[in-house]
Amino acid sequence: MTQGPDTSVVRYRPHHFLCSLGFEGKGYSPDFAANMTAIVMGRLRSTGGDATRITVTGSVDDICRPCPKRRGQLCTSQTKIDRLDAAHAAALSLAPGDTLTWGEGLRRIRAAVPPGSLKTLCAGCEWEPYGMCEAALVRLHNSPAIP
Ligand code: SF4
Fold first, then answer.
1. What DSSP element (H or E) covers 56?
2. Spatial CA neighbour of 43 closest among 84, 12, 89, 65
3. Distance of alpha carbon 63 from its chain centroid, rounded?
4. For ligand 1, mutation pick of 18, 23, 60, 71 (most atoms within 8 Å of CB)
5. From CA 105, how far away is CA 58, in angstroms rounded?
6. Which of 26, 77, 133 to mutate to test the pocket of ligand 1 (most atoms within 8 A of CB)?
7. Other beta carbons within 10 Å of 74
């Protein structure tokens, strides 16, 4: 018997919505990359925008869980992460406890995050200079419809 896609709820801190848009399979460790690949590619992207629900958390989430930088409920880069989460929560109107679909997250990104804005919104993120998030953002804005 084949199993259908896992559509149970994913827990995300605010800045991981944008991270999931730009994710290309790389990460902080092999376990981290495998976990994020399973969530982003195996659940969010493959099930269609509105099949997967995400609950917003103000702390470590399902992406953080196997991260080598996680220290319990905190991160070794906590000050930077707090700043990123606050900026992304404000931009996407997210608050801890909110639940929305991945598709709704994509629609909020498209409505509130214009191409060219990540240098400000994601300032300090070590992945931003590589450009894959900006490229994904441009693709999102150019896509005809969000599933
Ligand atoms: S670097 Fe920090 S915020 Fe980012 S995934 Fe790892 S533990 Fe979570």
1. strand 53-56
2. 12
3. 8
4. 60
5. 16
6. 77
7. 14
pLDDT digits (tens, 9 = 90+) for 45-76: 987 678 889 999 999 999 999 999 999 999 99
Please state the φ and ψ torsions of residue 103, each to the nearest 5 degrees.
-60, -40
Report if pTM > 0.85: yes
Q: How many residues does the chain have?
A: 147
User: Counting beta carbons within 10 angstroms of the beta carbon of residue 91, is it exposed (0 to 12), middle (13 to 18) or buried (19 or more)?
Assistant: buried
Q: From ligand 1's centre to the CA of 97, what distance in Å?
A: 19
DSSP codes, 92-119? HT--TT-EEEHHHHHHHHHHH--TT-HH
By CB atoms closer than 10 A (0-12, 13-18, 19+), residue 59 is: middle
Q: What are the sequence ranges of the domains in the chain?
A: 10-126
Report the 10 Å Cβ neighbour count for 30: 9
- In this predicted structure, what is the pLDDT of residue 49? 75
DSSP conformation class of 75: E
Tell me what percent of the residues of the chain surpass a pLDDT of 70: 93
